[in-house]
Amino acid sequence: MFKLKEFYQYKRELKKKNNILQTKLLAVPPYTVNNKSSVLSKSCQAILYVKSSKNNTIVSLTNLKGKVQFVQSCGSMGFQGKKKRSTKFAVESTLSSIVEKAKEQGHKKVFVHLNGFARARFAVLSCLNKNDLKIEGIRDLTPNPHNGCRPKKVRRI
User: Fold this and answer.
1) How many domains are there within the chain?
2) 148 or 69: which carries more pLDDT confidence?
């Protein structure tokens, strides 16, 4: 074991090393430090998150650091009932409102994160192409079980 003096000396050396590492990290541009945006290229300007469920679709636009700029959902656009909110038309109108706001901010290229299994996923890509917003890349964030939960035992009569 360490003696007390050796222990404190060792602790001071570790602090010095950590300080040196932190100063090196601060000198590197922010898009390579953050894991989320390290996938993105320098030309990409925003991230578009699309969460589609059976009942609703939520679209949010963030900057590269992850700070939310705009959020819109089919329910907030005035579509009521799950049949109306999950349609292609509802998704396209929601996306077009977000795209207009993005263009006002000056965004031209977007990285898309898709989440969920609903029909809206396919409408998203076609709508973005119609509105002249270039897709830098697509990433699927849908959770998939690797074999999942154990099923109930079979009922015997």
Assistant:
1) 1
2) 69
Distance of alpha carbon 48 from alpha carbon 59, whole angstroms: 7
Contacts of 54 (CB under 8 A, 6+ apart): 82, 86, 118
Domain presence at residue 5 = no
In a domain, 147, yes or no: no
Contacts of 107 (CB under 8 A, 6+ apart): 45, 46, 61, 133
- CATH number of the domain to which 113 belongs: 3.30.420.80
Q: How far apart are CA 88 and CA 126, in angstroms?
A: 10
Main-chain dihedrals φ then ψ at residue 46, nearest 5 degrees? -155, 165
Identity of the amino acid at 1: M
Please say whether the beta carbons of 54 and 86 come within 8 A.
yes
3-state SS class at 26: helix
Give me the domain span that covers residue 127: 49-140
d(C-alpha 51, C-alpha 48), whole Å: 10
Per-residue pLDDT tens over the stretch 6-50: 777 777 777 776 766 555 444 444 444 445 545 555 667 899 999
